[in-house]
User: Fold this.
Amino acid sequence: MTIRILVTGGTFDKEYDERTGQLFFKDTHVAEMLGLGRCRVEVTIRTVMLMDSLEMTDADRALIAHNCAQAQEDRILVTHGTDTMVETAAAIADAVSEKTVVLTGAMIPYAFGSSDGLFNLGSALSFAQILPAGVYIAMNGKWFPWNRVRKNRERGEFEETP
Amino acid sequence: MTIRILVTGGTFDKEYDERTGQLFFKDTHVAEMLGLGRCRVEVTIRTVMLMDSLEMTDADRALIAHNCAQAQEDRILVTHGTDTMVETAAAIADAVSEKTVVLTGAMIPYAFGSSDGLFNLGSALSFAQILPAGVYIAMNGKWFPWNRVRKNRERGEFEETP
Amino acid sequence: MTIRILVTGGTFDKEYDERTGQLFFKDTHVAEMLGLGRCRVEVTIRTVMLMDSLEMTDADRALIAHNCAQAQEDRILVTHGTDTMVETAAAIADAVSEKTVVLTGAMIPYAFGSSDGLFNLGSALSFAQILPAGVYIAMNGKWFPWNRVRKNRERGEFEETP
Amino acid sequence: MTIRILVTGGTFDKEYDERTGQLFFKDTHVAEMLGLGRCRVEVTIRTVMLMDSLEMTDADRALIAHNCAQAQEDRILVTHGTDTMVETAAAIADAVSEKTVVLTGAMIPYAFGSSDGLFNLGSALSFAQILPAGVYIAMNGKWFPWNRVRKNRERGEFEETP
Assistant:
């Protein structure tokens, strides 16, 4: 079983630009993180985009969904900014069926040392291996069906919708 | 659903003693790691022992298995040294049925910064939530039934037995 | 001998705000950094301000210079953003004589794990103990008299002026 | 001015061997640490040995002293285990005059993330640039003449002898 990993950016992959003092994207850290976790799950990684999820347009979401639909693998992990992760999950659910798609992200950039990213990646990759077909969000150690979850911005965590 | 976490030590929880220059156990890092991962899964953590798994006796394994059998929760995560993780899994399988028990550990101490521990914890906790009753090892991003896995000491990773 | 440490902010003390995704100041890390370095030099730490040095006004610099002039200690370390460190050094040189004042900072926030801050702090604190009276910048492992140094923004380092 | 850096091992450079669970030496981290500190001081690094200072013999100390004496540079930094740093300093003082030699080390391995090593390196390199000829130990942010210092093993720090 091979898992397709689609990288879209988000806090996960942000870095500090020491010249400007701003955060920016240089490259994804997913391969490095899998190495640190000594992951031996077969994966193929593709960077679809590297962007802040607050700046994603419908066209961006359509592109991500298209990548899910076209992937040969039927188990897919999408790394994504947390702010609009649920919107993108909905777009994927519209376009894809009969595949297991798990979205995950991070609250703190991996490059900053005290990130939740490595925990989330281990968690999401595990859920992606055994959940049945459907679109899910894996955050805070939990999994949620895409249409029963929201981000609680106040608390910085995901929760089931009532 | 509450997950019972049983801590037994292993590389996961080793620290550097600056007075002696040796590695030792002070306390478990599991709660701190779950905090870093912003885990919101309900867990109860119990430290059964803190030891190097090479030094575990049959009595130690019996105690771990007993803790699994007596736990109210039917989903259990055991942190454990990697060297004899499979032996302890076998002892648990002897004593427990109708529960999902997942063992995990680390190759590098969590306290040393570049550990696989956080990835493994996220992975194991996720498998513990959805695998059916049985005893499993979760390492390298994968899950293995306890009787179909061994540690490849040369490569420092777990693999399916032929 | 006691060293007075005046904290003014700068990259040194920036942190990541996970709610907004922006960098911000919460509190200084200087005491924590001295603890990590097991520093036993007697110091008194005072936070004068916590700001990006690009936003400092003449009034801010006057306040820093005033703090240097009023300090009982005649050896002073100032943590400061790198972008206008030289301007503040000039303001201090105008206001203070017969004291050793060393300014230092960082290119990467200490909280981000791969910072130059701890190295710079160890370096600056050492120079502050033995340089004769004067105003200096300690960066890149070197010390520079305030009027013979500039920041090379292209290279992100300090260099002697020609 | 070029500083000669002589590497001899010590906690500074210890690493964790994940196969054996023991600490060992692989290579020195000094160049990497100078890179992290964005050090622009001209240095030449030579690894004389990589060993625990508790295991050093008189012949080892003679070799280190010889390297100090033969070095073209008259400013030298020696990285060294803390346990017998004072003994080696004495051996160097016997063999070398008219040079500034500064010894430093660490209580926690640099590779373990929360080390004092980067602070100590910044400090020692700074002292090495301006102290007059003599043999010194730079630890805990301070500098000590070699014959007026001892390691307080109980507290894990260096202190002036009475």
